[in-house]
């Protein structure tokens, strides 16, 4: 039975149901319970934004608080995954990848290939990304392109509560290392989510909206921005098709290409910075594989090539918005040789 | 009727129906009537688009269409008044007054929530069975969906029938909100679940309506307890005749993405336009639930014997002597209407034009009429 | 932190165990000496880092381990692999880049692994292993197997943040983990006496709330006893230990290293401290084994390594198909 819950609750429910189903699932991270060793309440926080709240009481001994020591505990999650556990490590902010990246990209990502196909490393790294909370340059980045660049990692960007639950359950059951990126500004987003457990396969894009005039590929939080833009465009008789890839690795190339072959126009909307990012990657894919179908140059709507600013007006300028998406769509429609 | 008070009572508000649990609003895609037209009860008034499917709204009363309030392509909340029907002699002033109130309600969106079916669950053989009930009349009707369907597939049938019966729609094991484990997946197990539901509800006498696999389940239930089943209405039932579209069934079971699923779904309808993105999305959401794939695979083993039908419902029907009606879409591509020949002489058969396998969604009035005919005796 | 007493005799090991330990050490030595020669011919691709001189460490620690236990290794990993039971012929084939290798020719010397034997791989990243071992130790603890995780790392890695974080986490979580710091005197060409800011790596154990011991890495029995105590404590829930094993590597950082930074310590070590030499003296002096038995092992090992090299040279190389396989378990 589907009921309406938040993105935060959807993540929590996925963790809870998988921990119930499979005793080898453990979670670890800074203040995942919270209050370890302190005189007050145990399970004081449930993660810095309360995502893992309540799990410690339900699963004693399986929610591990850690020192602020990302290399050690992310590495521990990777090591434990090689020995029969299915750990879910929380890298609080994706920006902290700098202090543990080796364990992810040189260790976890490489084991399968480097050891000749004999390693299985079912580890999930949950991490928060994205701007919108005035958290400034070191707590707001969209660094998933860096992970997407690494063969051996799977990279997931849920855009709604439904995707968050199904993709996280898939991530936990998946036998490869998965970087699960949660947009911090989506935690309060609500939507219909089945109570039962379910999985959404990786590498299968969601066609969020059908349309024949232009294809908008949007990632993570940008899916709802694209939906708002599409609703506005529909009032002007422009029908946009919106594609949410859901995973950047693997990437559902076919759905994107089929859509562009139908519409002839592509706008990619990504909150990440533009260089070597998903917008550039998807644009290159379409330019290479569907060049003949294009009726206008591809448009990329991304953040500028700057760090994320702090002040509210600057941050608002930084994040792609509905107007920028609508303008980009119109540009593809108005284009003439 | 000249008394102004009583004439006010004779104005019938045609409201946006609630077809299914999740329906919150509907869009009138076309009106078949105009102001001033005379209509009989059951005449088609409009096509209404829910986010799942397009259905036909029928007139609840005879009379004259005095006002059409919701415009074509307008979204109206469930329960909102979208037209007024009244006898020709009801004065214009009263109609105007009612129309103004209705229009205000529509514009403000402040429409009273319409109670949908009441949801419930029972435990049978260790499984949870989910059901939805609408109506409170003395007679009881039980609706049993087909393979891969659920209680919501009766959305156009349950509501009209609820005026004259207590109508339960259940989710078979492996479907909807019921436990996904189907055990051995046999017809006997499914019929046992139905019997268990009737026991738990204390239902001693029931008119059973079954679609496709649900038709075979209904037959098996009738064979088990002939005295309990007042009548059978079989909608494109499985287990009759020797034709079955095994490719469809396997394709449906195996499809793992919306893109794979959609071409199979078009085989369910005479008009493939019925396969909306929402219908396909909802089915994919169902198929992704834990346990559903195993359930579908197991039931596929019941439905098929190689490429041939795996169920013999016709044999089971010999145990049942009560009235049987059959409704079959002429354009059925899953269980072709030719299968109905196996029921000639035993059942009253209605062949329905412009309907595929999902007769109850595509031409629901045909199913409603059959069940109503049975209720009328 | 107290230096352990030198082991007096043969640690109470029976003949079979002593012979097995000797065979392992001799296999590592033979493997590495042969690689030294073969590498010079130019037939072996890539980087090769030899463990010769350090055999007692891997052998004595792994002598306490079984299938419940896991180890993480370093770029100088051949000895750890052999001691944990990785197939020697497959290792040689891997180093030659053959499809019959431990990693189907996709890893090479620096990435030989056999997860089925609890060998988490040699590791090209200095300090890459200790965090992983926190995880394998956590898994053993969670599963209640009584297993331990052992991280071998060098004096270079002892300065890496990953190692220091892992030591802290292992202590905070009270993990059945053993950290074996193999101090061979040099991180690449930089002396440990210069790069390690305290006198001994084991001194750092105090800062992480765990026991730290220093052992003579040329003395198999000293390492055996220190490791035995630490592993037993870990199996019983007593938490982690840091063991510093001090010795000298016989070759350069990598094959081809001219070692212009070194003095004559290798010649002196080979002459008087060598772990195999000491082991032979101890077991024959105690009357546990005779020279003939040890020589017999030498002969068998020489044959094994000869066969391993011959087979590796004959084995097929990977094909284009192998280029893109095994990036993921599922795609």
What tags apply to this protein structure?
heterotrimer, A: 337 residues, alpha/beta, Rossmann fold, 11 helices, B: 377 residues, OB fold (Dihydrolipoamide Acetyltransferase, E2P), eight-stranded mixed sheet, globular, disordered N terminus
CATH architecture descriptor name of the largest domain in chain A: 3-Layer(aba) Sandwich
Task: Determine the oligomeric state from the structure.
Answer: heterotrimer
The beta-strand count of chain A equals: 14
Radius of gyration of chain A: 20 Å
The portion of residues forming beta strands of chain A comes to: 15-25%
DSSP summary: helix tally of chain B: 12
CATH homolog superfamily of the largest domain in chain A: Thiamin diphosphate (ThDP)-binding fold, Pyr/PP domains
Q: Given the helix and strand composition of chain A, which structural class is it?
A: alpha/beta
Using the CA coordinates, give the radius of gyration of chain B: 21 Å
Helix coverage percent of residues of chain B?
Answer: 25-40%
List the helices and strands and how they pair.
The complex is a heterotrimer of chains A (337), B (377) and C (331).
Chain A: E1 2-6, H1 7-21, E2 25-29, H2 55-58, E3 63-65, H3 70-81, E4 86-93, H4 101-114, E5 124-129, H5 144-148, E6 154-156, H6 161-173, E7 178-183, E8 190-194, E9 206-209, E10 214-218, H7 222-235, E11 240-244, E12 247-249, H8 253-263, E13 266-269, H9 278-289, E14 299-301, H10 312-318, H11 322-334
Parallel strand pairs in A: 2-3, 2-4, 4-5, 5-7, 6-7, 10-11, 10-13, 13-14
Antiparallel strand pairs in A: 1-8, 6-12, 9-11
Helix pairs in contact in A: 1-6, 3-4, 7-11, 8-9
Chain B: H1 4-9, E1 12-15, E2 25-31, E3 38-39, E4 44-49, E5 54-58, E6 63-68, E7 75-77, E8 81-86, H2 92-108, E9 118-124, E10 127-134, E11 140-144, H3 155-161, E12 166-170, H4 187-201, E13 206-211, H5 213-224, E14 229-235, H6 246-254, H7 258-265, H8 277-287, H9 292-303, E15 304-305, E16 308-309, H10 313-317, E17 324-329, E18 348-352, H11 359-362, H12 364-376
Parallel strand pairs in B: 11-12, 11-13, 13-14, 14-17, 17-18
Antiparallel strand pairs in B: 1-8, 2-4, 2-7, 3-6, 4-5, 6-8, 9-10, 10-12, 15-16
Helix pairs in contact in B: 3-12, 4-5, 6-7, 6-9, 7-8
Chain C: H1 15-40, H2 55-62, E1 70-72, H3 78-83, H4 88-95, H5 129-143, E2 149-154, H6 161-172, E3 177-183, E4 186-187, E5 190-191, H7 192-195, E6 212-216, H8 220-235, E7 241-246, H9 265-273, H10 275-285, H11 291-314, H12 320-323
Parallel strand pairs in C: 1-2, 2-3, 3-7, 6-7
Antiparallel strand pairs in C: 4-5
């Amino acid at each position: 039975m589907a009921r309406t819950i938040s993105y935060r609750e959807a993540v929590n429910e996925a963790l809870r149901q998988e921990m119930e189903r499979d005793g080898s699932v453990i979670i670890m991270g800074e203040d995942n319970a919270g209050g370890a060793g302190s005189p007050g309440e145990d399970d004081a926080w449930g993660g810095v934004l309360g995502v893992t709240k309540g799990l410690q009481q339900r699963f004693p001994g399986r929610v591990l608080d850690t020192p602020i020591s990302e290399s050690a505990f992310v590495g521990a999650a990777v090591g434990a995954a090689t020995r029969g556990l299915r750990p879910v490590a929380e890298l609080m902010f994706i920006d902290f990848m700098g202090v543990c990246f080796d364990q992810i990209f040189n260790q976890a990502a490489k084991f399968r290939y480097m050891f000749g196909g004999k390693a299985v490393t079912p580890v999930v790294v949950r991490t928060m990304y994205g701007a919108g909370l005035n958290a400034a340059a070191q707590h707001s980045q969209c660094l998933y392109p860096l992970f997407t660049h690494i063969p051996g990692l799977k990279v997931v960007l849920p855009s709604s509560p439904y995707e968050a639950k199904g993709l996280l359950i898939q991530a936990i059951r998946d036998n490869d290392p998965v970087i699960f990126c949660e947009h911090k500004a989506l935690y309060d987003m609500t939507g219909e989510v089945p109570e039962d457990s379910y999985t959404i396969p990786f590498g299968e894009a969601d066609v969020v909206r059908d349309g024949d005039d232009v294809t908008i590929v949007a990632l993570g939080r940008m899916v709802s921005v694209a939906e708002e833009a599409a609703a506005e465009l529909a009032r002007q008789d422009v029908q946009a098709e919106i594609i949410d890839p859901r995973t950047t690795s693997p990437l559902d190339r076919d759905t994107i290409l089929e859509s562009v072959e139908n519409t002839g126009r592509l706008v990619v909307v990504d909150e990440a910075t533009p260089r070597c990012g998903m917008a550039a990657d998807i644009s290159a894919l379409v330019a290479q594989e569907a060049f003949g179908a294009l009726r206008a140059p591809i448009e990329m709507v991304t953040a500028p090539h700057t760090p994320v600013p702090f002040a509210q007006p600057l941050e608002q300028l930084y994040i792609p918005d509905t107007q920028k998406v609508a303008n980009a769509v119109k540009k593809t429609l108005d284009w003439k040789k | 009727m000249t008394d102004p008070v009583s004439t006010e009572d004779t104005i019938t508000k045609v409201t946006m129906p609630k077809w299914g649990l999740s329906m919150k609003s509907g869009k009138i895609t076309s009106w078949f009537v105009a102001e001033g037209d005379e209509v009989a009860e059951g005449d088609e008034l409009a096509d209404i688009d829910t986010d799942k499917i397009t259905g036909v709204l029928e007139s609840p009363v005879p009379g004259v269409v005095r006002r059409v309030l919701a415009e074509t392509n307008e979204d109206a909340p469930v329960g909102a008044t979208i037209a007024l029907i009244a006898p020709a002699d009801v004065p214009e002033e009263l109609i105007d007054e009612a129309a103004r109130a209705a229009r205000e309600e529509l514009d403000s969106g402040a429409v009273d929530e319409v109670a949908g079916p009441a949801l419930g669950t029972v435990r049978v053989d260790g499984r949870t069975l989910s059901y939805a009930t609408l109506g409170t009349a003395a007679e009881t009707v039980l609706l049993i969906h087909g393979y891969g369907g659920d209680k919501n597939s009766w959305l156009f049938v349950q509501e009209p029938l609820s005026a004259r019966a207590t109508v339960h729609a259940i989710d078979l094991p492996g479907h909807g909100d019921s436990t996904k484990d189907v055990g051995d997946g046999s017809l006997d197990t499914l019929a046992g679940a139905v019997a268990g539901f009737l026991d738990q509800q204390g239902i001693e006498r029931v008119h059973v309506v079954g679609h496709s696999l649900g038709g075979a389940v209904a037959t098996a239930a009738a064979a088990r307890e002939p005295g309990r089943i007042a009548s059978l209405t079989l909608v494109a039932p499985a287990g009759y005749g020797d034709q079955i579209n095994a490719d469809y069934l396997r394709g449906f079971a195996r499809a793992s993405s919306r893109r794979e699923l959609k071409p199979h779904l078009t085989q369910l309808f005479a008009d493939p336009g019925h396969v909306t993105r929402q219908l396909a999305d909802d089915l994919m959401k169902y198929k992704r639930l834990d346990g559903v794939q195993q359930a579908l695979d197991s039931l596929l083993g019941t439905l098929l014997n190689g490429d041939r039908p795996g169920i013999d419902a016709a044999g089971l029907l010999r145990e049942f002597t009560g009235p049987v009606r059959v409704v079959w879409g002429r354009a059925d591509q899953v269980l072709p209407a030719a299968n109905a020949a196996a029921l000639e002489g035993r059942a009253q058969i209605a062949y329905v034009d412009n309907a595929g396998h999902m007769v109850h969604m595509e031409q629901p009035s045909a199913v409603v009429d059959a069940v109503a005919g049975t209720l009328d005796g | 932190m107290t230096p352990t007493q030198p082991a007096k005799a043969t640690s109470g090991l029976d003949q079979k165990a002593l012979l097995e330990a000797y065979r392992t050490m001799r296999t590592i030595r033979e493997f590495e000496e042969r690689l030294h020669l073969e590498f010079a011919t130019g037939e072996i691709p890539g980087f090769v880092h030899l463990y010769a001189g350090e055999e007692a460490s891997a052998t004595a620690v792994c002598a306490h381990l079984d299938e419940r236990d896991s180890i993480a290794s370093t770029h100088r990993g051949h000895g750890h692999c052999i001691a944990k039971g990785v197939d020697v012929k497959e290792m040689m084939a891997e180093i030659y880049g053959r499809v019959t290798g431990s990693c189907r020719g996709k890893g090479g010397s620096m990435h030989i692994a056999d997860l089925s034997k609890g060998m988490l791989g040699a590791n090209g990243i200095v300090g890459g292993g200790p965090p992983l071992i926190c995880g394998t130790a956590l898994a053993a603890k969670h599963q209640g197997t009584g297993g331990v995780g052992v991280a071998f790392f060098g004096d270079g890695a002892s300065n890496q943040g990953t190692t220091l974080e892992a030591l802290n986490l292992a202590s905070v979580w009270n993990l059945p983990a053993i950290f074996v710091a193999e101090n061979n005197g040099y991180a690449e060409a930089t002396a440990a006496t210069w790069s390690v800011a305290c006198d001994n790596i084991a001194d750092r154990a105090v800062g992480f709330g765990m026991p730290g011991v220093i052992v003579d890495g040329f003395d198999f029995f000293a390492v055996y006893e220190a490791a035995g105590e630490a592993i037993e404590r870990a199996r019983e829930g007593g938490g982690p230990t840091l063991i510093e094993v001090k010795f000298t590597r016989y070759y350069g950082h990598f094959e081809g290293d001219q070692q212009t930074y070194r003095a004559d310590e290798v010649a002196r070590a080979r002459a008087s401290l060598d772990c195999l030499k000491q082991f032979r003296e101890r077991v024959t002096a105690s009357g546990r084994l005779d020279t003939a038995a040890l020589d017999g092992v030498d002969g068998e090992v020489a044959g094994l390594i000869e066969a391993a090299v011959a087979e590796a040279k004959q084995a097929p190389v990977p094909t284009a198909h192998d280029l893109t396989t095994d990036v993921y378990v599922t795609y």
